[in-house]
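Sample intake — DUF6895 domain-containing protein
Collected from: Streptomyces fumanus
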Amino acid sequence: MTAVGVRGVREVADAALDWIWAHRGAFALGEDALALHGEVDRTWKPLGELAQVCATLTRRTDPADPLHGRAAELLAFAWRETDLGELFLTLQRQEPFATYPLEVYAAFAAGGLRHPGYETAAATVARTRGWRRTEQDPTRRLGVLCAERHGGIARPEPATAVLDGTWLGGLPEPWTFERASGYALTHVVFHLTDWGRAEEAGVPGRLTAYLAHWLPPWIDTCLEAGQWDLACELLAVAASVPGTAGPPLLQEAWRRLAAAQRPSGALPEEAAFEGEGFAYSYHSTLMAVFAAALTDHRYGGQGVLG
Protein backbone atom coordinates (compact mmCIF):
# COMPACT_ATOMS: atom_id res chain seq x y z
CA MET A 1 0.00 0.00 0.00
CA THR A 2 1.62 3.26 -1.12
CA ALA A 3 2.06 5.90 1.56
CA VAL A 4 0.80 9.40 0.94
CA GLY A 5 3.82 11.69 0.70
CA VAL A 6 4.15 15.44 1.04
CA ARG A 7 2.64 15.94 -2.41
CA GLY A 8 -0.38 13.91 -1.29
CA VAL A 9 -0.77 16.00 1.86
CA ARG A 10 -0.72 19.16 -0.24
CA GLU A 11 -3.26 17.67 -2.63
CA VAL A 12 -5.59 17.07 0.31
CA ALA A 13 -5.11 20.70 1.39
CA ASP A 14 -5.57 22.14 -2.09
CA ALA A 15 -8.73 20.13 -2.81
CA ALA A 16 -10.20 20.95 0.61
CA LEU A 17 -9.54 24.67 0.25
CA ASP A 18 -11.07 24.59 -3.23
CA TRP A 19 -14.26 23.17 -1.68
CA ILE A 20 -14.22 25.87 1.01
CA TRP A 21 -13.79 28.52 -1.68
CA ALA A 22 -16.67 27.12 -3.72
CA HIS A 23 -18.90 27.17 -0.61
CA ARG A 24 -17.69 30.48 0.85
CA GLY A 25 -21.17 31.94 0.45
CA ALA A 26 -22.40 29.52 3.13
CA PHE A 27 -20.06 31.21 5.62
CA ALA A 28 -21.67 34.60 5.00
CA LEU A 29 -23.49 36.27 7.87
CA GLY A 30 -27.24 36.63 7.46
CA GLU A 31 -29.56 39.10 9.12
CA ASP A 32 -29.93 36.72 12.05
CA ALA A 33 -26.26 37.22 12.97
CA LEU A 34 -27.22 40.28 15.02
CA ALA A 35 -30.42 38.82 16.44
CA LEU A 36 -30.53 38.90 20.22
CA HIS A 37 -29.95 35.36 21.51
CA GLY A 38 -29.39 34.20 17.93
CA GLU A 39 -27.85 30.90 16.89
CA VAL A 40 -24.19 31.84 17.23
CA ASP A 41 -23.02 28.32 16.32
CA ARG A 42 -24.73 28.66 12.96
CA THR A 43 -23.63 32.22 12.15
CA TRP A 44 -20.52 33.56 13.85
CA LYS A 45 -18.87 30.25 14.69
CA PRO A 46 -18.33 29.04 11.09
CA LEU A 47 -17.08 32.48 10.01
CA GLY A 48 -14.69 32.62 12.96
CA GLU A 49 -13.37 29.14 12.21
CA LEU A 50 -12.79 30.12 8.59
CA ALA A 51 -10.86 33.19 9.73
CA GLN A 52 -8.85 31.21 12.29
CA VAL A 53 -7.69 28.62 9.77
CA CYS A 54 -6.94 31.18 7.07
CA ALA A 55 -4.95 33.35 9.48
CA THR A 56 -2.75 30.34 10.20
CA LEU A 57 -2.43 29.43 6.53
CA THR A 58 -1.22 32.92 5.65
CA ARG A 59 1.41 32.61 8.39
CA ARG A 60 2.51 29.07 7.60
CA THR A 61 2.70 29.20 3.79
CA ASP A 62 5.00 31.08 1.46
CA PRO A 63 3.46 34.23 -0.09
CA ALA A 64 4.18 32.74 -3.53
CA ASP A 65 2.23 29.59 -2.67
CA PRO A 66 -1.24 29.48 -4.31
CA LEU A 67 -2.58 28.12 -0.99
CA HIS A 68 -1.41 31.34 0.67
CA GLY A 69 -3.16 33.52 -1.89
CA ARG A 70 -6.45 31.67 -1.67
CA ALA A 71 -6.36 31.75 2.15
CA ALA A 72 -5.68 35.49 2.12
CA GLU A 73 -8.66 36.03 -0.18
CA LEU A 74 -10.91 34.00 2.09
CA LEU A 75 -9.71 35.91 5.15
CA ALA A 76 -10.49 39.19 3.39
CA PHE A 77 -13.92 37.83 2.42
CA ALA A 78 -14.65 36.89 6.03
CA TRP A 79 -13.53 40.32 7.25
CA ARG A 80 -15.87 42.03 4.79
CA GLU A 81 -18.70 39.94 6.22
CA THR A 82 -18.08 41.68 9.56
CA ASP A 83 -18.29 45.09 7.84
CA LEU A 84 -14.54 45.45 8.38
CA GLY A 85 -14.99 44.81 12.08
CA GLU A 86 -17.85 47.23 12.65
CA LEU A 87 -20.27 44.41 13.52
CA PHE A 88 -18.10 43.45 16.48
CA LEU A 89 -18.74 46.88 17.96
CA THR A 90 -22.47 46.34 17.43
CA LEU A 91 -22.27 42.97 19.19
CA GLN A 92 -20.32 44.58 22.01
CA ARG A 93 -23.13 47.03 22.62
CA GLN A 94 -25.80 44.32 22.45
CA GLU A 95 -24.02 41.69 24.56
CA PRO A 96 -21.21 43.41 26.46
CA PHE A 97 -20.35 40.36 28.58
CA ALA A 98 -20.50 37.73 25.83
CA THR A 99 -17.04 36.37 25.06
CA TYR A 100 -17.71 34.96 21.59
CA PRO A 101 -17.37 38.33 19.77
CA LEU A 102 -13.84 38.75 21.16
CA GLU A 103 -12.97 35.11 20.41
CA VAL A 104 -14.05 35.52 16.76
CA TYR A 105 -12.42 38.95 16.48
CA ALA A 106 -9.13 37.52 17.76
CA ALA A 107 -8.91 35.25 14.71
CA PHE A 108 -8.99 38.30 12.46
CA ALA A 109 -6.56 40.22 14.65
CA ALA A 110 -4.16 37.28 14.39
CA GLY A 111 -4.32 37.79 10.62
CA GLY A 112 -3.55 41.49 10.93
CA LEU A 113 -7.13 42.78 10.61
CA ARG A 114 -8.12 45.09 13.46
CA HIS A 115 -10.85 47.51 14.53
CA PRO A 116 -9.50 50.02 17.11
CA GLY A 117 -12.98 51.12 18.18
CA TYR A 118 -14.00 47.59 19.06
CA GLU A 119 -10.77 46.94 20.92
CA THR A 120 -11.30 50.06 23.02
CA ALA A 121 -14.85 49.03 23.89
CA ALA A 122 -13.80 45.44 24.66
CA ALA A 123 -10.97 46.62 26.89
CA THR A 124 -13.39 48.80 28.88
CA VAL A 125 -15.67 45.86 29.62
CA ALA A 126 -12.69 43.56 30.31
CA ARG A 127 -11.68 45.80 33.22
CA THR A 128 -14.90 45.03 35.08
CA ARG A 129 -15.11 42.46 37.84
CA GLY A 130 -18.09 40.92 36.03
CA TRP A 131 -16.00 40.12 32.94
CA ARG A 132 -13.04 38.80 34.87
CA ARG A 133 -15.27 36.51 36.89
CA THR A 134 -17.26 35.07 34.02
CA GLU A 135 -17.59 31.36 34.80
CA GLN A 136 -16.13 29.14 32.09
CA ASP A 137 -14.62 25.69 31.86
CA PRO A 138 -10.78 25.81 31.87
CA THR A 139 -10.34 25.07 28.16
CA ARG A 140 -12.71 27.89 27.20
CA ARG A 141 -11.00 30.19 29.71
CA LEU A 142 -7.66 29.45 28.05
CA GLY A 143 -9.18 30.40 24.71
CA VAL A 144 -10.53 33.66 26.10
CA LEU A 145 -7.10 34.52 27.52
CA CYS A 146 -5.62 33.92 24.08
CA ALA A 147 -8.32 36.09 22.50
CA GLU A 148 -7.67 38.86 25.00
CA ARG A 149 -4.00 38.95 24.08
CA HIS A 150 -4.86 39.36 20.40
CA GLY A 151 -7.34 42.08 21.35
CA GLY A 152 -4.69 43.98 23.29
CA ILE A 153 -6.21 43.16 26.68
CA ALA A 154 -3.85 42.27 29.52
CA ARG A 155 -5.18 40.06 32.29
CA PRO A 156 -3.16 39.19 35.40
CA GLU A 157 -4.52 35.66 35.49
CA PRO A 158 -1.67 33.23 34.65
CA ALA A 159 -2.39 30.79 31.85
CA THR A 160 -0.51 28.05 33.71
CA ALA A 161 -3.05 28.09 36.52
CA VAL A 162 -5.86 27.65 33.98
CA LEU A 163 -3.96 24.93 32.11
CA ASP A 164 -3.73 22.76 35.20
CA GLY A 165 -7.52 22.61 35.35
CA THR A 166 -7.96 21.26 31.81
CA TRP A 167 -8.33 17.59 30.92
CA LEU A 168 -4.94 17.53 29.21
CA GLY A 169 -3.29 19.53 31.97
CA GLY A 170 -4.22 16.83 34.46
CA LEU A 171 -2.34 14.13 32.50
CA PRO A 172 -5.38 11.81 32.71
CA GLU A 173 -5.39 8.06 32.31
CA PRO A 174 -5.08 7.53 28.55
CA TRP A 175 -7.99 5.11 28.44
CA THR A 176 -10.34 7.94 29.53
CA PHE A 177 -9.89 9.56 26.11
CA GLU A 178 -13.20 10.02 24.30
CA ARG A 179 -14.68 12.42 21.76
CA ALA A 180 -15.31 15.30 24.19
CA SER A 181 -11.91 15.05 25.87
CA GLY A 182 -10.30 14.71 22.45
CA TYR A 183 -11.68 18.02 21.26
CA ALA A 184 -10.82 19.60 24.61
CA LEU A 185 -7.17 18.54 24.43
CA THR A 186 -6.75 19.70 20.82
CA HIS A 187 -8.07 23.14 21.70
CA VAL A 188 -5.79 23.40 24.70
CA VAL A 189 -2.85 22.85 22.36
CA PHE A 190 -4.28 25.24 19.77
CA HIS A 191 -4.56 27.97 22.40
CA LEU A 192 -1.05 27.32 23.74
CA THR A 193 0.48 27.38 20.24
CA ASP A 194 -1.70 30.25 18.97
CA TRP A 195 -3.33 27.90 16.47
CA GLY A 196 -0.03 26.69 15.07
CA ARG A 197 1.23 30.24 14.47
CA ALA A 198 3.76 30.37 17.31
CA GLU A 199 7.34 29.85 16.19
CA GLU A 200 8.09 27.89 19.36
CA ALA A 201 5.37 25.69 20.76
CA GLY A 202 4.16 26.97 24.11
CA VAL A 203 3.32 23.48 25.35
CA PRO A 204 5.06 22.58 28.64
CA GLY A 205 7.52 19.69 28.53
CA ARG A 206 5.40 17.45 30.73
CA LEU A 207 2.51 17.72 28.27
CA THR A 208 4.79 17.16 25.28
CA ALA A 209 6.11 13.97 26.86
CA TYR A 210 2.58 12.82 27.65
CA LEU A 211 1.39 13.52 24.10
CA ALA A 212 4.40 11.70 22.64
CA HIS A 213 3.18 8.56 24.41
CA TRP A 214 -0.54 8.77 23.79
CA LEU A 215 -1.25 10.95 20.76
CA PRO A 216 -0.32 8.17 18.26
CA PRO A 217 -2.81 5.60 19.62
CA TRP A 218 -5.50 8.27 19.92
CA ILE A 219 -5.01 9.28 16.28
CA ASP A 220 -5.15 5.63 15.25
CA THR A 221 -8.32 5.10 17.30
CA CYS A 222 -10.07 8.02 15.60
CA LEU A 223 -8.99 6.87 12.15
CA GLU A 224 -10.24 3.35 12.85
CA ALA A 225 -13.58 4.80 13.94
CA GLY A 226 -13.79 7.03 10.86
CA GLN A 227 -13.84 10.18 13.00
CA TRP A 228 -12.18 12.31 10.33
CA ASP A 229 -12.80 15.69 11.96
CA LEU A 230 -11.21 14.78 15.29
CA ALA A 231 -8.41 12.89 13.52
CA CYS A 232 -7.52 16.05 11.61
CA GLU A 233 -7.46 18.10 14.81
CA LEU A 234 -5.16 15.53 16.44
CA LEU A 235 -2.88 15.61 13.39
CA ALA A 236 -2.75 19.39 13.69
CA VAL A 237 -1.62 18.88 17.29
CA ALA A 238 1.06 16.46 16.10
CA ALA A 239 2.32 19.07 13.63
CA SER A 240 2.27 21.80 16.28
CA VAL A 241 4.14 19.84 18.95
CA PRO A 242 7.31 18.28 17.50
CA GLY A 243 8.15 14.71 18.42
CA THR A 244 4.62 13.54 19.14
CA ALA A 245 4.08 11.46 15.97
CA GLY A 246 6.47 9.49 13.78
CA PRO A 247 6.64 9.01 9.99
CA PRO A 248 4.78 5.66 9.81
CA LEU A 249 1.77 7.05 11.67
CA LEU A 250 1.71 10.27 9.66
CA GLN A 251 1.98 8.41 6.37
CA GLU A 252 -0.86 6.04 7.25
CA ALA A 253 -3.04 8.82 8.66
CA TRP A 254 -2.79 10.95 5.53
CA ARG A 255 -3.32 7.92 3.32
CA ARG A 256 -6.61 7.25 5.10
CA LEU A 257 -7.72 10.87 5.01
CA ALA A 258 -6.87 11.15 1.32
CA ALA A 259 -9.00 8.06 0.70
CA ALA A 260 -11.87 9.49 2.77
CA GLN A 261 -11.85 12.86 0.99
CA ARG A 262 -14.65 13.22 -1.55
CA PRO A 263 -13.83 14.00 -5.21
CA SER A 264 -15.18 17.51 -4.58
CA GLY A 265 -12.55 18.09 -1.88
CA ALA A 266 -15.00 17.84 1.02
CA LEU A 267 -14.13 15.70 4.01
CA PRO A 268 -17.15 14.54 6.05
CA GLU A 269 -16.94 14.79 9.82
CA GLU A 270 -17.39 11.03 10.11
CA ALA A 271 -17.25 8.09 7.75
CA ALA A 272 -20.90 7.34 8.52
CA PHE A 273 -22.09 10.69 7.10
CA GLU A 274 -23.43 10.51 3.56
CA GLY A 275 -23.66 13.40 1.15
CA GLU A 276 -21.85 16.71 1.36
CA GLY A 277 -24.14 18.93 3.39
CA PHE A 278 -22.36 22.10 4.49
CA ALA A 279 -23.15 21.59 8.19
CA TYR A 280 -21.58 18.11 8.18
CA SER A 281 -18.57 18.93 6.03
CA TYR A 282 -17.35 22.48 6.54
CA HIS A 283 -15.53 22.04 9.85
CA SER A 284 -13.80 18.78 8.99
CA THR A 285 -12.82 20.17 5.58
CA LEU A 286 -11.36 23.26 7.27
CA MET A 287 -9.49 21.02 9.70
CA ALA A 288 -8.11 18.97 6.80
CA VAL A 289 -6.61 22.14 5.30
CA PHE A 290 -5.37 23.27 8.70
CA ALA A 291 -3.70 19.98 9.61
CA ALA A 292 -2.26 19.45 6.13
CA ALA A 293 -0.72 22.92 5.97
CA LEU A 294 0.83 22.57 9.43
CA THR A 295 2.13 19.10 8.57
CA ASP A 296 3.66 20.35 5.33
CA HIS A 297 5.20 23.33 7.14
CA ARG A 298 6.69 21.12 9.85
CA TYR A 299 7.82 18.12 7.82
CA GLY A 300 7.72 19.13 4.15
CA GLY A 301 11.45 19.61 3.81
CA GLN A 302 12.50 16.71 6.02
CA GLY A 303 11.42 13.75 3.93
CA VAL A 304 9.32 12.49 6.83
CA LEU A 305 6.26 11.71 4.73
CA GLY A 306 8.01 9.80 2.00
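Post-analysis note: The mean pLDDT is 93.
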